[in-house]
Amino acid sequence: MIKAYPLIDTRIKNVDFPSNFYVQPKDLDSTKAKKIVAAAMKGLAENSDIRYLVFSLDKYMIFGIAGFTRKIAEVVGDASKYSQYLSDKFGRPTKAFIGYAVDKTDITNSSVPDVSMDTYFDMYIEYLTKQWEEPIIKTEYLSSPVCELESSERIGATPTIVEVSGRRFIEKEYFYAHKEEIISYYFNKIVSDSTISFLSGIDKDYNMNDIISDISVSQDIINSYKNKKIDQEQDSFASSSSSKSDSPKSMLGSFNEKFKDIGKSPKPQDQPYEKKTPNSGSRNKTIGIAIGAIILIMIIIVRNPIGTFIGIVAAVILALILMMFRKK
Asked: What is the pTM of this model?
């Protein structure tokens, strides 16, 4: 048998979730614990799977389930019996974390608690009915464990963990096929390594690995992380290649190549001959006027066939003028 403290976070008929837990050990750091429990309940929907959570905080091993109470009651078979406790005064379905806190010193010889869904729900109802109708929630602080849980020695099987970009995943279907072994594994592992924690049943990417180390998710989420990693590696490679081509050394070489002859006097034979032409500005102006006149004449020719002869004569004259300018 393992002695344990009940640990519950829930709303009641008239009040939403309390700042601390509904019931908890007196010396538990509720701020840190609530942060992890809140992550476990993030994104819960009425049709979500019941989630399993295992983590360590200071001297306590904490484990339990998170989900909508109606879903838990349906699994237990007590949904009709306790229907008045499954939604608040506004008709909103209630959700809860229902678990236990165990002093690590009370865990010996790979002892793992054997807690059924019935045991979780019966404990929840026992404490919930004490304050269900109250206008406020008064956290019940416990100075000693009040529950005794059946236990057995189970080391559990090391699960298949997929690591992608620093995140650790267990495929959802694999977890449900080996649920008892995986939970036993984490319970024993976390007793000696408080950096590890586990949560099952995540159906969307909530990016909570900074709070919970190992998460059971769908294969689609795992694939999406793998694809992101591939994209990031490709972007990194492209950026690396670009930075090499744009490195100071290569840029300096290109700069020197382009401007190596600046300041040098060209050889005489390399200097292009350019005939100095006075009044080049006025000559260019005359050429421009001539070209404009040719365009105007062509328009006249197109619109008035009678002026064809005049247009041809004018074009010949302008052409002769242009030739004279070129000779000069």
From this structure: 0.69
